[in-house]
Amino acid sequence: MTIPADSPQGSPADVQPEADVPVADESGVAQAAPAELEDDVDDGFVDDADRERALRAGLEDFELDDEDRALLDAEWADGDVVPAEEALPVLAVVGRPNVGKSTLVNRILGRREAVVEDKPGVTRDRVSYPAEWAGRDFTLVDTGGWEVDVAGIESKVAEQAEVAISLADAVVFVVDAQVGATASDERVVEMLRRSGKPVVLCANKVDGPSGEADASYLWALGLGEPMPVSALHGRGLGEMLDAVMEALPEHSEHGTLRPEGPRRVALVGRPNVGKSSLLNKLAGAERVVVDEVAGTTRDPVDELVEIKGIPYWFVDTAGIRRRVHQTRGADFYASLRTQAAIEKAEVSVVLVDASVPLTEQDTRVISQTVDAGRALVIAYNKWDLMDDDRRPYLEREIERDLVQVTWAPRINVSARTGWHTDRLVRALETSLESWDTRVPTGRLNGFLGELVAAHPHPVRGGKQPRILFATQATTRPPRFVIFATGFLEQGYRRFIERRLREEFGFTGSPIRISVRVREKRRR
User: In this predicted model, which residue has the larger pLDDT, 247 or 11?
Assistant: First the structure.
């Protein structure tokens, strides 16, 4: 677990005020207001802006570099969000398992996005990616393998592929040219004809001129000219995409406008904790494949969900396993995609199985969110499965294992029944508001002045570091920079963090505190 063992929430003993240690009397945050000014301060004559200007003037007596001055002179501005003008056309890639659909998707995108492994059944959900070819933007949808007369998880994968076809403007049907058309391929052709969608036939795994003869046999499917392609090497990809652009309409009938406003929420947790079930319940549809087998989800799946009138982009992710470096193949790459999804999100909802004891994986997932600087909500799922004898043990586990994140809001839900899922909105709003919070510089320095006057940094080696000035450098997450005459111990930084939370809230958001030690300018 990457969270340090000592708690940031408690005030360390060596941070308490010492009777024999005087408060520094030079200009700076640590200096108490002179007696003759106390009445003025109480009456409000010295406001936050006056305090900030006075402390900034005192800071000029110390050595400051260009980076310091850029930080102090930075202005805060909210960037304008420009929404998309119209929905993009949707192109679905379908075919039976292990014909190279995800490899083809990665080749079209020009990067490794979809999880790929040399065995069938790796992709299970329909996953959308923004793509571009010849100056045209479109949405590319990767699907799981479609087979006939299958049961269990394979049947759910096939259902998702059928949904992808119904929601597409055009379809790329991928066939293994080396194997030729199979009975499953012919059934897919029947389904495509019933859909009435434009279809481009991709004869994959044609690695050279000798394989083009095998591709010619696919004319028998009755879908027009087969386009010989090698998704692995990129051979013939340009010609196929040119044909796709001719089939893809200019204006989408099925694409959805992707607004920029909704916040991105990552559903994370260990395998089989109920992330996909929660997304399906929130979306009100079977958006992703759910199965009792752990590790069903592999590719992050985005879905626009509206809860109580508020839209959010939810991202279902693969479960984070105990030791990522020991995983192989699809599970390894799925773990990498999950970490990337956390970093792209604004807030992570970490699902914990309330019916069983907390595990190392649970605390590791929380650590990944905190280390990524994302807002945090902890959701205890499967609450309906927890018996009364388990409740006191759960409270003890929270106090023992989650002591580092007592600032995170916690909710109890049941993804299977939808119980209390509406409470998720309030927790998300609280965490995101804290994640975006900025404390005015004058108010921040006034708070630190009172804090340091009551609880000065302990003397170490005959020296007592003094806080000169503080400012909030960034939000998302809130990061505070403190200028001081000496190094502030880690325990004292944790003490400041706890008091910052008590004063300004920051519920659900990690806080970063960095210290810049500056010496007085020589005269």
Answer: 247
